[in-house]
Amino acid sequence: MTELTTPISDGEIAKLKVGDTVLISGYILCGRDAVLPRIIKMIEEGLDVGCDLRGQVIFHTAVSPAGVGPTSSNKLEIESSMIPLSKAGVKVHLGKGALHPETISALGELNAVYAVIPPVTALLGSKTSEIRVLQFPELGMEALHLIKADKYPAIIAGAQGRSIYE
Predict the structure, then answer these.
(1) What is the Cα–Cα distance from 107 to 109, expressed in whole angstroms?
(2) What is the residue extent of each domain of the chain?
(3) Burial label, 90 (beta-carbon count in 10 A; 0-12, 13-18, 19+)
(4) Are 7 and 52 in contact, with CB atoms under 8 Å apart?
(5) Local confidence band at 152 (pLDDT 50, 70, 90 cut-offs)
(6) 101-109 and 76-87 are packed helices; what angle lies between their axes, rounded to 10 degrees?
(7) DSSP-assigned beta bridge partners for residue 145
(8) CATH of domain 2-163
(9) pLDDT tens digits, 16-71
């Protein structure tokens, strides 16, 4: 079991292999299909997204009073955000489901990984100590959130151009 704390270094990511289990701690971003295209547009326009993306984790989820749990990462708006977000410094994309081989390959080239997390909303709620809206509060639970995680369990599903789904 590898423990990762944000911000995550290139060296830590380079050591991860498909099937490795990790515990993720520190401040991580939460966003899904409603907000990620807006964040990509902000990056393209050179606007501040509210935090440094270098070494960051983005969890494909909404944040609600019920807690956090993964959404399908292969939704067009989510999967298409992974390459630009990785270019901007994001190191770990956290969600669920299989991705296209082209996305896995590009993540490998950008020294970023994709990790899956079981749909365990109650468990993750107990491992989340802070929640703050960073951008687009009008989207409610689908706004871009920053949360503080304490040892979120995950499995590396895409690394170094390989996928656990092969």
Answers:
(1) 5
(2) 2-163
(3) buried
(4) yes
(5) confident
(6) 10
(7) 30, 133
(8) 3.20.130.10
(9) 999 999 999 999 999 999 999 999 999 999 999 999 999 999 999 988 777 788 88
